[in-house]
Structures
1.
Amino acid sequence: MNERAALLKKLNAYAFAAYDWNLYLDTHPQDTDAIAMFHKMTNRANALKEEFESKYGPLTAMASQNMERWDWLDDPWPWEKG
Amino acid sequence: MWSYQKRLQYPVNVKNANPKLAQFIVAQYGGPNGELSASLRYLSQRFSMPNEMTKALLTDIGTEELAHLEIVGSLVRQLAKNATTTEIENSPFGQYFMNHGRGVFPADSTGMPFDANALAVSGDPIADLTEDLAAEQKARAVYDNILRVSDDPDVNDVIKFLRQREIVHFQRFGEALDQLQNTPANRVF
C-alpha cells in the first residue's frame, strides 16, 4: 500500500468511528461518554485530514488552497482503483 | 444541504473484472432494496418526522446511504471496466451492456430501472420507522445473497462492510421507534 493510501486509510478509520458515534448520539443524545468519544475521534480525523490535504490536495472543493490551478479537479477520483 | 468528500466511506479495489457479478451487484444500486431506494426513503421521510431525534437520524442515515450508493457504483464500474466483450456477452451483463456499456445505471439485477414504488413515505412516523426496519433487513438479505454467489475476496470485503452497516442502521431505527412509541404525545393508538 502506498503512502497516500495508508494515510487515507487512517483518516477513513477515524472519520468512520466519529460518524458511528454521531449515529449512536442521534438516539442517545445525553450520553456524555459517547460525546467525549465522538470528539476524540473527530480531533484525530481532522488532524489526519489536514495532513492528507496538505500532501495530496483537497478532499472537499471548499478546502482547495492552490492559487495557480483549480486542483479540485485532480485525479484520482474515489471510485477509481487506488 | 450536502457537501461531497472526495473519498469513499470504505475503499473499493477490485482486481478482477467480473461482469456477471456486476449484474448481480447493480441490484444494490438501482434495485428495490438498494442504496438509492434507502437514501430516497430516509431523506424523504425526514420531512414529516415529529421530533429532533428522528429528523437527525433519518438525515444522517439517508446521507450515509448516498455514500453507500457511491461504493456500490464503484464496485459495478470496477467489475465491468476491464471486462472483454466476450466475457460480457456470455454473462447476464450482456443485456445491460446494450444500453449502458460499461457504465453505471440505476436498475435492478433484472434490468428494471429504479422504481420509487420500492419506497414508501406515509407521513406517519410509526409506519415510516417500521418500514425502515424492514428496509434494512431486506438490504441485509440482498447482501447475504451476493455473498452466496461471489467468491471474489476484494468484492466480499466491501459487501461485508455494507452488510454490517445495515445491521447497525436497523439497531438505530429500532431505538428511534421505541423512543417514539414511548412518548405520550405520540401515542395515537
2.
Amino acid sequence: MAIKKMSTWAYSIIIIIMLFVVFITLYPIVWLAASSVSDASVVASGRVTLYPIGFNLDSYIYVLNQEGFWTGYKNTILYTAAGTFTCLFMSTLAAYPLSKKRLVGRKYIMGFILITMFVNGGLIPNYLVVRALGLLDSIWAIILPTAISTYNMIIMRTFFAGIPSELEEAAMIDGLGTTAILMKIILPLSKPIMATMALFYGVGFWNDWFKPLIYLSSPEKTPVTLFLRNVVFGAQLALEQDASTQAADLTQVYMTIKSTTIILVVFPMLCVYPFIQKYFVKGIMIGSLKG
Amino acid sequence: MIKIHGTKGSLVKVLVFMLVVALTVTVVIGCSKKDDSENSDTNAQTEDNKTDIQNEGDEDETKERPGSWVSDELIEISMLYKDEGSYPYKSDWLIWKAIEEKTNVRLKPVVVPASDYETKERLLLSSGDAPDFLSRFGAGHENEFLPAGLLVAVSDYEDQLVEFKTKVEKWGLRAEIEDLKQLDGKYYVLPGLCEVPWLELSFAYRKDVVDKLGLKVPEDYDELVTFLKALKEEYPDTKPWSEKWNHKATGRFMGPAWGTEWHWGGHDVAQYDRENDTWIIRAITDEYREYLRYMRKLIVEGLFDEESFTHSSEQLVEKISTGKAFLSAANMNEVAEWEEFGRKNIGPEFDFQMMVPPAGPKGKLGAKKGRLYSGVAIPTTTKDKPYFDKVLKFIDWMYYSDEGVELARWGVEGVTFQIVDGKRKPMPDIKYKWFNPDAPKDARIDFGLDNLAFINSNTKEMHYELMSEEEKAFAQKYEETREILPPDPRVKYTPDQMEEMSLLKTKVNDYTNEMYLKFMLGQASIEDDWDKYVETVKSKGATRYVELKNQAYEATKKARQK
C-alpha cells in the first residue's frame, strides 16, 4: 500500500500539516469556550487566547435565564427531531422506487425532480404558497416545503441501487411484498446511509434560521437559532440594513454573551457528530459505488 | 400499467390511494381562498365574549386624566416589534401589562430579531400579512413601500391624532412635518416628536490621561492636531484617534464643520447646498478635498488609526480599554461601556469624557439635527379593520401623550420609579441608564422600559431628567456654543427617478468609496490624481444623478405648496 512505501520524512510532513489544520480549525471553538467563561473586560481587551482568564459563569447564568433561550431550544429540538424523521421517511419513499430501473417513466420523474435543484420560485412565491396551504406559523412550514432534499435523495437512490438485486429476488420468491422487502431487507442494510442522511438533515434543521424567520410569527415558536443570530449579529446587521438607524439605537452585546450563546447552541451537534461520523464516510463512499 | 410485485399488493394499493387523496386535498386547499385574517377573528371573539360593561368606569377615568385614552372594550392590536439582542423580548414585561391596564389594549407583538428585521418587514408588508402597525419606522424608510400603496396616508387622519397634532403645533415642528410630505401632498409616517434635539454624538477623550499631561481640550481641528501629537509623544506606539463603523459616525458632527459629508446608510451622491438651495455633487467639492488632506496628514503622522476603516467595534473597544486609543466618536452609552472595561483593565482612574464637537473651517457648527425621531407607520390592511380608529387612538396615546411617553420611559409610579424632590428617579433596586449601576434589576432587561419600540417622543423635562450630571453639562455646552443646523430637506421621487438614481448611485458610490479609502491610505494622491478623480466621478453618472435630484426637489417643493 502507498503508506508503507512513503518515507518517514514525507509522513511527518503530512502529520505536521494536518496538525496545523486541526489547530486552525479547533482554535475558534477553543477561544469561544474560553471567552464564554472569562471576564468580559478581559475578553474586550483581547487577552484571552486559549484558556479562560477571570473564570466566571455570569454569562451562562444570564443566557440560561432568558425566556427566549429556553423556548427556542425546546423548539429547535422539536423541529430537528420531527423534521429529521419526516425527511428520512419521505426521502426513503422517494429514493427507493427511483432506484429501480424497472420504474415506468423513471427518467422523466428524475428529470422533473432535478429541475427543482436549479430553479426556485423565490422568497415571496414560496411564502404565498405556504400561506395558501395554511401552514404559516406552524411547525409544518419548517418541515414540509423542503422535506426531500434532492441532493440527499440522489445519494440515497445511488445507495439503494447498489444493494444487490439478488437479495430482493430471493425475498420475492419467498413471498414478500414490496413494502415488506423495503422494511425487512433494505432498511436494515441501509444503516450507513440513514445515519448520514439523519446527520445531514438533522444539522440542517438545527441550524435553520431563515425558514423560521419568514414563516413563523409567534415568539413561542421560534427556534434558538434566531435568538443566537440576534445576539451575535443584531447590531451589525441592523446598521448595514437600515440607513435611518440612529447612533443611540445600536445596542452592543458583550462578546462573552455572544460566545456563550454560540457554545450552547453548537454543543449538542458537536457531541453527536463524532458518533455518527463513522457512518458518514462509509455512507458517502458506498453511495458512489456501483452494485 | 405499473406492475406491483408481490401477492400482498393490497397494502401497497391502500397506501397509494391514501397518497393520492392527500395530494388532491392539498391541491384543493391550495386553490381555495382564505377570507378573513386571523386577527379580526380574535377581535370578533373578544367582542362577543365581553360580558362586563366597562364603559362607566372608563369614562370617569378619562375625565380625570387629561391626555389619556381608554378603549371601551378590550381589543388586541398587533405590532411589529424589533427584538434587540441586548434586551431580549420577554412576554411578562411590565410594559405590556401596564399598557393593558391603562388603555384596555392588549398588544400582540410580532417579534422579529433585529438582525433580520428589514427582511421580515418587507415580506409581511408585500404579502399582506402585516400587523396592525409597525414600530421603529424611520422617516424616509416609507419611500420603498409607497409605489405599491402599502402604507396608510396618516396625514389624512391628523385630526384624530389629537396629541400628535398638539405637540406638533406647540413645539413648532410643523415645518419638519411638512418636509415629510410626498409628491401627493400627504405623509405616511408618524415620527417621534422631540421638544429638544438629542445631540448625542461627539468626540470622547481619555480624561485622566489628558489631565495628567495637562492638555487643553481642543476647541477646533487645529488644536486637535496639537492634542493628538502630545498624546502620541507620550505614547509613541499608539495611534491616539481611532474609530469604528468605518469612521462614519464621526461624519455626523465633523462633516458640517468642514462643509462636507460622509455618513452611513450609503453616502449620498448629492450634497445639499443651503445657500443656493440646490444639490451638488458631494465627493468632488473643495471642502471634501480639504477634509481628505487633513485626515491623510493625521494618518501619515500616526495620529489617526487607519485600521478604523476596517476593524470591528469589538476591536475598537479592545484598543480603548487597554489604553491604545484615547479619542473616538461615541455617545454616552458607549462611553459608559468603555469606562466599565477600562476600569478593570487599566485602573479606577480610567475616565472618558465627551467634548463638544470642535469648530472647523466652516465655523462652530454641530451636527445637523432635526427633532423628528423614528416612529410608526400603519399598513393599509389595518385601514379595513373595524377597530382602525382605536389603533389610531392608541398610537396617539402611546407615542405622543405625556402619559404614554412617561410610561415608556419610566414605567409605573411606585413600581419602577418614584418622585423625589419633584424629579423622577428609578426605584433603588432598578438599574436604569446611569442610575443605580449596581442594582440587581435592570429597567430595560427586566421591565421592558426604555424600549426603542416605544420611546420615540420626548419632552424637554424628561430629556434632561434622564441625563447624568456629566451628560447634562455636555448637552448644555453643546447647545450653547455650537450652531445646530437644520436637517437637509427631504426629496421625493417618482418611481422612474428612483430606479435610475439607484443604478447611478451604486456606480458612483462604489467608485467614491474605493477612492476615499485609497486617498486616506495613500494609494492615490490627493494632489496629483484629483483632477482625474473628479472627471471619473462625473462620468460615472454623478452629474446625471444630481440633475435628477434637483428636478425631483423642484417637484417636491411645488407639491409642498398644495
3.
Amino acid sequence: MTKEALQSCIAERFANKLTLLESGRYDLMFEVSAGDLIEVAGRLRDDDELRFNFLCNLGAVDTGETLEIVYSLASITKGHRLDFKVIISYDEAQVESVIPVWPGANWYEREMAELYGIDVLGHGNLVPLLLPENWDEGYPMRKSWDSPDFKRLPEV
Amino acid sequence: MAELRTEEFQVNMGPHHPSTHGVCRLLLTMDGEQVVDIEPYVGYLHRSIEKICENRSYAQCIPILDRFEYVTSMACNFVFSLAAEKLASIEIPRRAEYLRVIMLELNRIASHLIFFGTTAMDVGALTPFLYGLRERELIMDLFEMTCGQRLTYNYIRIGGVARDLPPEFIPKCREAVKIIGEKLADYEGILNENPIFLARMKGIGQVEADHAIAWGVSGPVLRASGVGYDIRRDDPFSVYDKFDFDIPTCQAGDNFDRYLVRLNEIRQSLRIVSQALDGLPEGDIKAKVSGNFKPPAGEVYSRIESSRGEMGIHLVSDGSKKPLRVKTRGGSYNQLQFLPEVIRGKGYLIADIVAIFATFDIILPEVDR
C-alpha cells in the first residue's frame, strides 16, 4: 500500500484512536493514548488489510519534558510500514506490555525499564538486561541523569 | 533396586567461551545430558553507545556507530547516514549511491565468510576457518586501500561517502569477485555432503516461520524458514531497485538451511558487486553538507538489510547540532531473545546448542551496544 492509501485506511479504521503527528519525516507517525495501546496494537496486527505482524523497534525517547515510547511496525506480508508513539509523563512512567501482541517486545521492554525507569505492566520479568545486577545509580538514559564520571564534551 | 533420584542442574556457559562468539553468558538448565532451557545473560559489552551519541554531533556519531556492529560496520554507517539524510531531505549523488552499495555488499560477503569459517570451526572442522578468512583478506585489502581501515570504516558519511576509489580498486575488486566465486564451489565441496557436518546440522534447530516473525527475527534466519523477506527488495533503499539479484530461501529452517542461505547470499552479493562496478557512474561522491549540520526537528526510523537481518536506527532531532535520540536496532538482539524458544523442549545436547548459536550468527556488540 502506498503511504497515502495507508493513511486513509488507518483514518477509516482507527478514526480517533490514532492521531497523525507532524514529526514523522519519512513514514507515518501516529500518537496513541496509553489506555488504547493494547487494543490498537492488536487490531493493527490482525486487520486483513494492514497485517502489521513484525515489530521492528520499540524504544523510549526522553524529550526533556515528557517520555515518549515509539513503536515501529512493518508488515512482512503486505510490505508497508508505520510508527506510533505513546506519550507519558515522568511522574506516571508506566505503560502496558505489548508482549501479548508481539512476543518480540520482551527484551526491548526490559531495556526500556532499566534505562528509562518506565514500569512495563504485565511483563513479568523486568530483570535488568544490559546494566549490572547491582546497579542502583538511577536511570542512565534520562536527560536528567548525572554522575561524576559523565563528562559532557565542550560544544563542537 | 532403589529408585534413582534425578534433578535438573544448571551449567554456566560463561561469558568467556570460544563458541559464544563474543561475551554472552548462557545459563543452561540440564537434565542429564539434555538441555531443558537456556537463559542468555547479556550486557558484558554494553558501552552506552546511544548515550554517547546524544553528546556528539551527527558527523561524530558515525565512527561511534561503527562499533555498534563492527563486523558489518559499513551497514551501521549506511543506516545512520540514511536516517540523517531523510531528516534533512538531502539528495545523494548517483556515484555515491553505487559506491555505498558496493561497500555494503562487499562487507556482507566478508561477514558471511566469517560465519562460514566460525560455524565450521564450531562443529569441529578447523580448516574451513582458514579458507574463509583467507578470502576475506581480499576484501579487507580492498577496504584498506579505499578508507584506510580493515574493520571499522567510518567511510559512508552523511551526504555520500568519504573518499573516492583509488585507481587500483576496480581491477582488484573484479579479481576478488572472481576468486571468491570460484572458491565457493570448493567450500561447498568440503562441507555440504560431509556426513559429520550433516549429522550436526540437518534437522537441528528448527525455526517456524510464524514463530520467528512474531519474535521479530529477520535476515537469513527468517529466509531459511521459507519467508523470502529481504529489505533490499521489499522496502528498497538506495539504488537496490536497479540491480538484478535473487533472494535465496530454504524451507526446513534448520541449521543446514541457515548455512546454505548465507552461502547463496554470498553468490548474490557477488552478482550485485559486478553489476554495480559495470554501471558505476562518474560524478561527485558527496553532497554539500554544511559543517554545522542541523537537520530540522522530526524523527525517522530507517532500516537496511544487514548481514544479520534488519538493522535500524530511530533518529530524533530537535533542530540542534546533536541528535536528541539515536535508538539502534540490530538483528542479533531479536535472534538472541528467540534462542530459548528454539531449543526448549527438544532435548538438545550442549553440542547442538553450540551449533545452533553459530548458525544464528549472533554478534554481541549488536545486542549490548
4.
Amino acid sequence: MRISKIIKPIAFILIFCLINMLLTFLLSPGDGASSRMWKEFREYDNIDMIFNGSSYTQKGFNPYTVDEILGTNSFNMGTPEQGLDVTYEAIKTAIETQKIKTVVISLSAYTLGGEMNDNACMTFLRARKDGMTFIDKVKADLAFVFDADNFGKEKSINYFVPWVYNQIQWNKEDFITNWNVKVHGYVQDDGVTEYIGKGYECNYRRLSYLTAVDKNSAMLHVEVNDESYDKMRAICQLCNDNGIELFFINTPKAVYDVLSFGEDYYFEVDEGIRGVCQEYGATYYDFNLAKPELFENRKEYLADFEHLNEIGAEVFTKAFCDLYLDCKTGKKSAEEIQLLFYNREEYDAIMKPIGEKILKQAEEGIEYDY
Amino acid sequence: MSVFYSAQFLCFFVILLILYYTVLRRYQWLCLLGFSLLFYLFSGWKSIIFIFISSLTVYFGARNISSAEKLKSKKGWMLVVLLLNLGILAFFKYINPHIEGISVPLGLSFYTFIAIGYLLDVYYEKYQPERNYGRFLLFITYFPQLIQGPINRYGKIQKDLYGQHNWDWQRAKQAIYIILFGLMKKYAIANMLTELIGIILDDHIKDVPGSVIVFGIFLYSIQQYADFSGGIDIVIGLSELLGIHMMENFKRPYFATSLDDFWRRWHISLGAWMKDYVFYPIALSKGMRKFTTWTKKKFGKFWARTLPGVIANIIVFLLVGIWHGSELHYVYWGFYNGLVIGISMLLAPVFTKWKQVLHIDDKKQWYRIFCIIRTFVIVNIGWYFDRILLWKDSFKALYASAFKFGLSEFMNTMNPFFEIYPKKALLIALVGTVFLFVNSVLAECKMGGIGSIVEAKTSTRWAVCYFLIFITLLSFGVSTNAGGFLYANF
C-alpha cells in the first residue's frame, strides 16, 4: 500500500512524459526553421554580419552571395514571423557569441505593427537554447516565463510544451516528411522551398498578378504605434552600445502592394522608420521605392506578394551588396544614394499607375505584363 | 480566462495553498482575504475602491437594518444601500460603455449581486448580520467567484469560508479533475469554436443560407455552455482545493425537459437569486395580491393563480437580459425566455388535455427525449437574440432558418470559411464535445462522470486525466490569436 503510494505518482509522471515525447516526435517539425538556424549558427564563432527578421529576411538575403561580394562571414538569422522583440534577443546572443560588426534587419509596416506571433516567438527562443549551458538554459526559460508580457498569459505555461506551439500540418504528407526527417535524417525536397545553408532558404514559387486583389498586405492586420517604434529604438540602442553598424531594409514586395496596404499609411510608416533611424544613426533603405538602376521590381523575382523567389533573392542580394559597398567606400554620396530611390512624388507619377493597372486588370481576370 | 491558466496564477495559487495549510493554517480566512485582495489588486488598483464601497455600505447597511426597531427605518436603510450599489452597477454597465478611460471593476456584476443578496437576507431576517468586517469583506472579495460567479449565498458558504480546513488528498484529486475538465471545456471546445461562429454570425450573417445560420447557432449553444460551465468548473475546483464548497451553477442544462427546467440547470445561482429576490417579492407583493383578487373575480381561479407568476417571470427575465448587457438584443433575449415560460404556464392545462386525448404517458423515456429535443430547439431560438448583435438581424436570421434553409448550399458556403478557419480546430472541438456529451449522459443517468471520477478504476482515471490534459494542450496549437495555423513550421 505504502509502496503503491510512491509508485503510482511516479508511474503517472512517466506515462505523461512518454505521451509527451510521442507527441513531440509526431508533431514537432524535425527541420524547423528556428532550430535549424540556431544549430548551424552555433557551428560558427566568427560571424561578422547577420541578417535578422522574418521570412522576408530568411528568403531574401543569400549569405553566400553576400560573402562573395563583400568578403564577409555572414549568416541569415531570419525565421518565419520573427518579431522585433525576438530579433533583439537574437542580436544580443549574436553579439555575445560572435564577432558581429554589421546587422541588417528586414523591416516593414507588418514587422512593426503586425500581430505578434507567440508561437513563432516561443519556438525561436527555445531553439536559441541549443548550445547553451544548463544554467543559461534555465535562466533563459525563467526570463521568458517571468517577462511582464508573458507571466500572466497561457504562453508562460505552454512554453514548456514545444509541440503545442510548433506543429507540422495535420496531413499525411507532412507526417511522412517529418517521419523521414526524424528517423532517416533527410529532408524531402518539396519542390517549393529549399534550405541552402547559413540560415537561407529559397523559394521556388512564382507570383501571379491574378492574385493581386485577394493576396496583398491589406489582409494583414497592422497597427503601428509608439510601442512598435520603441522596439526599433531598443535594437538601435543595442547596436550603438556595441559599436555595430545597423541597416533596416524594406525588402521588395509586389509592385501593387503599397497601394493595397494604403499609400498614405505606407509613407507615414516609412517616415516614422526614417525618423527613428536618424535618431540613432542607423540606415534605412526601402527597396519598394528603388529605381530600376538599383533594383527593378519584376513579377519574375517574387514567390508571392511579399516574398522574393530564388532568382529575386539573388538579384536583390547583389543590389543590396552594391549599395552597401557604395556606402562604405564613399563611391556614392548620401545624396546620390537617395537619388536611387523614388520620393513620394516620383512614386505617384511612376510606380503608382503600374500598381493601379495590375490591380484593375486582376479584377478583370487579366494578368498585367510588367 | 488566461487569468487562471498562467504561470502568474499558478505561482499565486501554489503560494496560497502552502501558506493556507501550513504557516497560516490557524488564520485561514485571513490568509484567504489577503490573497483575494491581492488578486483584485492585480486587476487594477483603482477598481478596488468600488469593491470597498460596496462591502462597506452593505456591511453597515445590514448592521443598521438589524439594529433598527421600526420597519420604516429598516426599509429606508435597505433601499438606500440597494440603490447605491445598483446605481454603481448601472453606471458601469450601461453608462460607462459610452465613456472612454473608465474600465469596469473586476467582478462588479457578481459581487454586487452577492452583496445585495446578503443585504436582503438580513432584511428578511434569515440570519444575523456578520459583525466582523474582515470576514464580511472576504465573503464579497473571495477571488474564485469574481470572474464568472457563482453568486454565492452567505448563509450557505460562511461555514466553509471561515472554518478550519485540513488538506484532503481525495478532495484535492477530485478538484484537480474538475479543474482539468473546466480547462478542456474552455480551451478545447469553446475557444476552438469562437472564430468560426464569428465568421458565420458576425461577418456573413446576411449572406449565408439558413442551414449555415442554424449550424452557427448550434455551435454557439455548445460554445456558450462549454465556456461558461468550463469557467465555473475551474472556479469550483480551485475552491475545493481550499476546502470551500461552492454552489453548483450548471446541471446539464441541455437535458432540460422545459424552458423552466432549463433555467433551473443553467446559471443556477443567478436563477435562484432572481427567484428569491425578484420573483417572490413581486409575486407576493401587495399590488400583486390585489391583482390576483381582481383576476379571480374576473377570470377564475386558474388565471388568478397563474397570471401573477407569468408577469413576475417576464419581469425576472427582462432583468436577466439587462444584467447580461446594455445592448437591446439581450433585452429581447430575456423577454423571449420570460414570454415562452409565461405562455407555457398559461397553456399548461391545454397540454395536459392533449396528453390525455393522445394517451401520452409523460413518464415514458421517448417522451422525455422528445421534451429534451423540443427544449433544446426553444433554447436555441433564444440564442438567436443572445448572440446576433443587431436584433433586426436576429429576426432575419430566424426567417432564413425557417424559410431559406438551403441545405444544398451548405458545403459551398462553408468551404471558403475553412480557408480562414482551420479544420483541426473543429476536430478538436468535436472530440471535446463528444467527451462532454458522454460525461453529461453518465451524470444525468447517475452512472458516474467527472463528478465521481475519484471512485473509478486507476486506469480509467488516468486515461481521463491524460485525455483532458493533452486535448487542452493540443488546442493551443490552433489558437488563432497566435496565428499559428497560418504557418506550420517555425
